[in-house]
Amino acid sequence: MSFCVAFVHNEQVHAQWAISLAELRARLDCSMIGVYSGSRVDHGRNVAVRGFLDDPAKGDWLLFVDTDIVFTPEDVRSLFATAEREQSPVVGGLYFDIGGDAVARVREADNADGGMNHRLLTDAETYGPPMAVDALGAGFLLVHREVLDHVGRDWKNTGRPWFAFSEHFGTAYSEDIEFCIRVRELGYPIWLDTAARVGHRKGATL
Fold first, then answer.
1. Using CA atoms, how far apart are residues 14 and 169, in angstroms rounded to an integer?
2. Residues 6+ apart with CB under 8 A from 93
3. Is the model more confident about 101 or about 118?
4. Cα–Cα dist 196/74, whole Å
5. Of 31, 54, 57, 179, which has the highest C-beta tally within 10 A?
6. What pTM does this model have?
7. Radius of gyration of the chain (CA)
8. Which residue, 195, 186, 95, is CA-closest to 136?
């Protein structure tokens, strides 16, 4: 498999993330796009997407991996086992806070008020097969080039980029949830791969 890994940073990355990335590059064929974002993670993600779309040689899939995520090449392989251009063009992993509560959450649309709420997964879902969801964080997210290209073309009509902090129905959303809202508005499904179970470690950095 040939793909591109995108990460944004503020000049610091977690040590275990750096080890994870080195192992991935040693075992799988991938290119990289690293973008300094400072406090503007949305801007950093958008720059990474543009760099990916401008270079067809980087492959058909872009994998976002935040610099506080601890993962293995097997986690990436699991995402690709679930991913498919038409049926599952956006696939994310299940990540837990290391040293904190191992509780899995997804975002789910609230039909009553049109908002997007956190929902705890049941044990059956957490340890079950991949499942369609309304939104995921972009900490460990695989996206097909076609989806990113479509969102980019829609940007010209809406003025909304791939990633942006936003407000819908009186609720503020992070840049990754806004991205998922955009993706689903354009008709693409979003999948959670429960077998890709990665760690979310906050704290010491390089």
1. 35
2. 71, 75, 78, 79, 139, 140, 141, 192, 193, 196, 197, 198
3. 118
4. 8
5. 179
6. 0.89
7. 16
8. 95
Strands 166-168, 61-65: pairing kind: unpaired
- pLDDT category at 27 given cuts 50, 70, 90 is very high
Q: d(Cα 160, Cα 166) in Å, to the nearest integer?
A: 10
How confident is the model over 143-155, as pLDDT tens digits?
999 999 999 998 7
For 146, the enclosing helix (H) or strand (E) is helix 145-158
CB 110 within 8 A of CB 117: yes
Concatenate the DSSP letters of all residues of 116-127 into one string.
Answer: EEEEEPPHHHHT
Pick from 193, 197, 194, 199: nearest CA to 80: 193
- Looking at 63-67, 143-147, 173-177, 193-197, which range is the least confident one? 173-177
For residue 74, give the amino acid letter: E
**Residue 31 identity:** S
- The mean per-residue pLDDT over the stretch 27-36 comes to 95
